[in-house]
Amino acid sequence: MSLLIRNGRVVTAVDDYHADIFVEDETVSLIGRDLDVEADRTIDASGRLVIPGGVDPHTHMDMPFGGTTSADDFETGTRAAAFGGTTTIVDFAIQTKGHSTLEGLETWHEKAAGKAGIDYGFHMIVTDMEDDRLWEMRRLADEGVTSYKMFMAYPGVLYVDDGTLFRAMRKAGEDGTLVCMHAENGIVIDEIVKIALAEGKTAPKYHALTRPTRMEAEGVHRSIAIAEVAGVPVYIVHLSCADALEQVTLARDRGAQVFAETCPQYLFLDLSHYDRPSGRSPGDHDDFEGAKYVMTPPLREKWNQEHLWRGLGFGDLQSISTDHCPFCFKDQKVLGVDDFSKIPNGGPGVENRMSLVYNGGVVGGRLSVNKFVELTSTAASKLFGLFPKKGTIAVGSDADIVVFNPDRRETISIDNPHTHHMNVDYNAYEGTEVQGVSEIVISRGRVVVEDNVWYGRAGGGNFIKRGLFGGPF
Ligand code: DUC
Ligand code: ZN
Ligand code: ZN
Asked: Predicted confidence band at 153 (pLDDT cuts at 50, 70, 90)?
């Protein structure tokens, strides 16, 4: 099977030129002007950007959490990702406390195999790591799971203490792997939550008000310090605020191997969303609309957003992921209708990331088009051992390619079939108009989305064994 993409403006993290791209089977085999080749199919990309498929290094499909399970599984979630121009995700397998991480990996393989419509990899969430289990970490790396996530938040659930953190970090450093950190002081936060509930503060907005930015900044500072002593690079996930960013910047300025991502929710949504009226009839959980935005870290005061954009522009933040972890408003968020601490934490976004970042970044004059590709695809590919198969368009790379219309506008809405394929009953960006839409999405040489129709198949995506951490960059 061969495919010729003609007349497009090819944009990678470093290039910007007009050319044809010839794809044979799953990879790019030729790039040039007016290519004289025969192909099974030709796509005319005139007036379009031709960019590497998006790489979202932070999703939670089919994840048990908060007494329920995230609403997208690997089938619905990867399909929605593809509609939005993302062709690779790195999801999080979880180690059940007291059990082998290898068992956890097996469980996540079972969840994804035969379901994922695009390629995927796994990080491993480590929930305990005694000395006699440390050998598993190297095994995981050999299995292509070359990064781990640990939580300083959620005591009693996913939380690990500093000793565990250090042990696992030291081993990861020896093995050449990367540690991802959910950096928030969960012990202090839980105390603040107890105080709020005792005072009768139960509404969704108290989720945000009990998680101060200082506690995120403290987690970032502490995890970086421990990582420096352990001798391992660290990647701060879902960084949400200026306070935390300052810690990353300070550490990078003194040469520490620290990397960080932020997410669209922290760039486009803010604290005021917790006070949004429901628009429904009184009595129907009228003051509960804010539950849609209960995620961790929470949305912050709006002024933080300019700091995050600046961090992206200056390179202190390397990547934009989604932390896609959707829960339905009616059936799942409602678990916390009388107590914000019982609202399942997480929100949807995997489908809307590329358009949101293009619109806010490139159209908004904050990012070059190359930087847009770097932040949504290339940097994550490099950090997480996927490059150059993923994250660029080059001879020999996987043909994960998006034909992106930089002029087309859509209004993101649960009611707009062009913007919402996620298996969740609301869209966090409802009513946001974006310019820049993924029109044709190609996964390893196969068109999986065109004209808003799904041509992929459950099981069409492959598990990707990722390489070791290769930075710094
Ligand atoms: N944050 C969320 O909002 N959901 C899942 C896990 C996390 O860290
Ligand atoms: Zn997290
Ligand atoms: Zn997450």
From this structure: very high
